[in-house]
Each structure stands twice: as structure tokens, then as C-alpha cells.
Give the backbone structure.
Amino acid sequence: MSHPGVAVVTGAASGIGEATARRLAADGHAIAIVDVNAAGGEAVARSIGASARFYGCDVADAAAVDAVAARIERDLGPARVLVTAAGLIPNAESILEMDMAAHDRMWQVNYHGTVHCCRAFARPMIAARRGAIVTLGSINSRMPLPIPAYNMGKAAIERLTQLLAVELGRHNVRVNSVAPTYVMKPPLRAKVEAGQRDMTKIMSVHALAKLPEPANIADAIAFLCSEQAAFITGILLPVDAGWLAGVSYRTYAGGVPWKE
Ligand SMILES: NC(=O)c1ccc[n+]([C@@H]2O[C@H](COP(=O)([O-])OP(=O)(O)OC[C@H]3O[C@@H](n4cnc5c(N)ncnc54)[C@H](O)[C@@H]3O)[C@@H](O)[C@H]2O)c1
């Protein structure tokens, strides 16, 4: 095989998944884009070129994930890399007032979808005794934030990542998670412009003075998938511009004021 193996990226029709698909393609992988958004997924595949193909699939549907995994193996070969970036991102809401159907769907897509994909794509990695999986956590994996099903689901994804790392480690398959802070993308930009997000407040709890873009998250994911990370497994790597450090620091009397 002339390329370093097949990389399956879920949620690659946009955002972090798209940036990751582009980055892994640049690293030489053949790319399988798995997403519910056919128009977006096809467009990303076309713009990457012949090394990328789009596969329509709802990751919440375990049977559909198994079927797409079989198709990808038939078309492109066994998966060597899996990145689970498919997900739904809600707004803040109260647990007492939240819509339970939306709550269940969030779990189905974000948590169960991750489980379905890890199970389906770990099988060829175990058979080949080689593979790397990166799940999408979040700063929500570590701290309570007021987006209930999302927040708890991201904490569960960190634990899932650890359990899988131990279960698959003997087969030479590594499993890690990345935990981005707010990622600067068009939806966040639009919310800031519409006055729904206050960048001064957001930045006051970050150590760095700017937020990452999808390509910055893709860099961390590509590292975890690479041979440079050969002995890294079971970790959650924050890509958070110092949010985890800053958010507790600022609770102590507001912290020491910035000196520009
Ligand atoms: N954007 C952020 O600030 C941020 C921060 C931390 C973590 N994350 C995580 O990163 C991941 C990607 O987020 P993003 O910002 O790129 O979001 P995005 O909305 O740009 O991309 C998510 C993709 O997932 C796809 N998708 C949604 N439901 C699906 C389903 N059921 N089956 C298959 N595909 C589905 C969408 O079509 C979309 O292409 C998510 O897991 C998110 O929780 C994002």
C-alpha cells in the first residue's frame, strides 16, 4: 500500500472533521468521510481529490455504521485511523426545562455514535494489530457547563476512551481523545456578531489571547494518529488555549489582572 492507510473521519462534512480529513489526506491517508450531510460531505471529498470518498451514514444507527464500515473496507481497505468528529452542539439550557427528545438524540449521536464507530472500525485494526482512534471530547469532558446532555456525554466519551485504550492496547491499537475549547468557526462568529456571545467574557478565562480554528484541532488529532504518538494512549489532550487553567484561576477574586 502506498499510503499510510485508510483514515475514517466522521462528521467530516464540516468544521473539525473537515479540517481533520484535509490534514490526514495531506499526511497521505486515503480518506473515508462519514456524515449525514451528503451535499457537504461530497463537496469536501471532491475538493480533497481522488484519495477521498464520501459515505452517508447516521452514526446513531449501529446497524448503519456496521454496514458503512463493511463498504469502506471493501472499497478502500481496512481502517487504520478513526476520528469520531460527528456530533451535535446545543445551546445552554436548564435540566428541568430541556426537551427530552432532544436530550435523547444528543446522547444517541454524540455518545452512542462514538461507541458504534469505535466498535465497527476497531475490528479491522485489531485484525491488523495496528491502528489509532481519536475521539472528540471537549473542555466539557472535564468541567460542568450548562449544556446537559452534551456536557455529560463528553465526560462519558473521556471514560470510554480510557476503557477502550486498555481493551485495545494489547492489539497495538491506541485510543485517545482531544478536548477543544470553543473553536472559532462561522457559527461562533455569527453568534458573536449577533451579540449572543461575549468574546471579552470568553477570552477572560483563556490563557492565550485567541481561540483555535478547526485546523489547529486537526493538527493535534493528526499528531495523536501518527507514529510520533506511538506510546500515547488513553489520554485526553486539551487543545484549549489554556481554558482549563484559566477558568479556575479567574474564580479566585477574578485572578490577577492582565498586564498587556
Ligand atoms: N466547535 C467547537 O467549539 C467544539 C469544541 C469542542 C468540541 N467540539 C466537538 O468537535 C466535534 C465536531 O464539532 P464541529 O464544531 O466541527 O461541528 P460541526 O457541526 O461543524 O460538524 C459536525 C458534523 O457532524 C455531522 N453529524 C451530525 N450528526 C450526525 C450523525 N448523526 N451522523 C453522522 N454525522 C453527523 C454534521 O453533519 C457535521 O458535518 C463535535 O463532537 C463537537 O462536540 C467542538
Observations:
- Residues 10-11, 13-17, 35-37, 40, 58-60, 85-89, 109, 113, 136, 138, 180, 182-183, 185 surround nicotinamide-adenine-dinucleotide (CB under 6 Å).
- The CA atoms of residues 54 and 130 lie 24 Å apart.
- Residues 100-128 form the longest helix (29 residues).
- The domain at 6-184+213-242 is CATH 3.40.50.720 (Rossmann fold).
